[in-house]
Amino acid sequence: MHGVDLATSAILQTVYGACWPYESRVHFVRDHLQLSDDGLVALDWAVSVAGASYQKRRRTSSNSTSPILLIIPNSFGKITRNVLKLCEAALIHGYLPVVFNRRSHNATPLSTVKLQQFGDPGDLREAVRYVRYRQPVSRLYAVSESTGSGLLLSYLGECGSSSYVTAAACLSPVFRCQSWFENGPIWPLQWALVIYQKICLSRYRTVLGETVHTDTLFSSCSLRGLEEALFCHPQSPKVAQSGATSGSSGGAWEAYWERNDPLRDVDEVAIPVLSVCAQDDPIRGDPQSTLPLELFESNPHFFLLLTTRGGHCGFNTPEGSAFSGGGTPGTGWSHRALLEFFRATTDFIAAEERVKQAARRRGLGGSSQGKSFRHRSVSTCKRLPACSHSIHTIYNWQRSYTR
After folding, report:
1. Which positions ≥6 away from 219 have C-beta within 8 Å?
2. Within the chain, which residues score under 50 in pLDDT?
3. Residue 41 near residue 108 (C-beta atoms within 8 A)
4. FRET label pair with 174: which of 82, 234, 288, 366, CA 20 to 30 Å apart?
C-alpha cells in the first residue's frame, strides 16, 4: 500500500486513510461531558500506552502549559487512521490531543433524543469551555477532518474573537456542504457513507422513533435523504397521522442549511485557519466548483495549501520523505504541515507581544497605540508550497488592518 499506486491513486489514498486497519500506539482516556440539555458528548484524551497513567494525572492538572490540540473527526463519527496518526504526531510534538465525539458517535451514549445538526456549534462551545476550565493556561489549537470542518468553521464564525482558539486547520474540508449533500461523492463512496451511518443509527432506532420517521430514515439511499429524515421532519409518525404538517420538504431543507452552512458567518472568523486540500479529492469533488477560492483571495485569516495529489485525508508519502528534512516514519505530511503552521502562528503572536512590551517600556503603550495592536491581524500568500520545510518560504506574514 505504500508503493507508487498509493501515492498516485486518489481512491486508494482515501480508502487507506479512512478504512485501513492501524495498530495505534495511542491510548485514549475518555471524559463524558453532560451538556446543558442533559445530552452527552465525549472527549477522548490521547496518551501514549507506555505513559498512560502519568499522562492521565497530568491532563487533570490545571497547571499544565502544554498546548492542547482539539481534533474534530468527520461528521459521521468514524475514528480513522488519519485521526489516530494525527494524535501520535501531536503527542510527539508536545501537544495534548483530545478528540471531540458528538452525541451518539464513537460509543458515546445517546441520553436525549436530540442529535447534533451538521453545523450547530452549541455542543462544541460547551466542550471548549470545559477544556478551558480544565487547562486554563494552555493554548488551544483545533483541527477538523473531512466533513468535520463544517462544525469547526461554524464554531469559529459564530464565536469570532471569543473562540479561545489560537489557530485552526481543516484537513480535506468540504465547504459547499448543501451542494455536497445534494449531489454527493461518486456512487460507491456515497453508498459506503450511507450504509455506515445507518449502522451507527440502527442501535437507536426505537428512541429515535419518538421524533424521526424511522421508516423514511432507514429506507433512504442518499446522504441528503438521511440528513432530511433526521433534521427536516422533526414530528413523529403519530403526529403526522393526526393531520399536522411541517411544510414542504424543499422549504425545510433550505431553512436547515440557512442555519447550518459552515460559511454563514465566515467573515467573523478572527484567527488564522489553514485548509489542506488535494485537487484529486474524490469526496469533495472538482476544486473549481467546490473550493471557495474567493475566500482565500479576500480574507486575510484563511490560507489554502492545495496539492495536485493526496486524495481525501490521504496525503501519504514514502516513509521519512514528507519534507526535505526527513520526518517521522509513516507520518502523513499534512500533519507536519499543520503543526508547523501552528508553530509559525505562535511565533508570530509571540513576536507581536514582544513588540508591544517594548513599546510600553519606551512609553509608547498609550491607548491609541494599544488599539492599533489589537486590530492587527495577519495576511499571507494564499497558496502555500506543498513540501517546503522552511517556514519563511511557506508563510509571508504581513500586518494589515481588518474590521
Report:
1. none
2. 1-4, 52-54, 57-58, 60, 237-247, 320-330, 367-403
3. yes
4. 234
CA distance 345 to 270: 13
Provide the pLDDT for residue 303: 97
Known catalytic membership, residue 281: yes
Strand pairing report for 96-101 and 40-48: antiparallel
- Amino acid 379: pLDDT: 36
pLDDT for 160-204, tens place per residue? Answer: 999 999 999 999 999 999 999 999 888 888 999 999 999 999 999
Grid coordinates given for 267: 467573515
**Of 350, 339, 378, the residue nearest 67 (C-alpha):** 339
pLDDT at 136: 93
Residues found in the chain: 403
pLDDT for res 5? 53
Q: How far, in Å, CA of 170 to CA of 154, rounded?
A: 12
DSSP calls for 53-121 = HHHHHHHT-TT--PPEEEEE--TT----HHHHHHHHHHHHTT-EEEEEE-TTGGG----SSPPPPTT--
Q: In the prediction, which pLDDT does 50 show?
A: 53
Predicted TM-score (pTM) of the model is: 0.81
- The confidence score (pLDDT) of residue 201 equals 94
Quote the cell numbers at residue 27: 491510548
Choose, from 27, 105, 233, 312, the residue flagged as catalytic.
312
- Using CA atoms, how far apart are residues 171 and 123, in angstroms rounded to an integer? 21
75 touches 17 (CB < 8 A): no
Q: What is the largest CA-CA distance in the chain?
A: 75
Residue type, 355: V
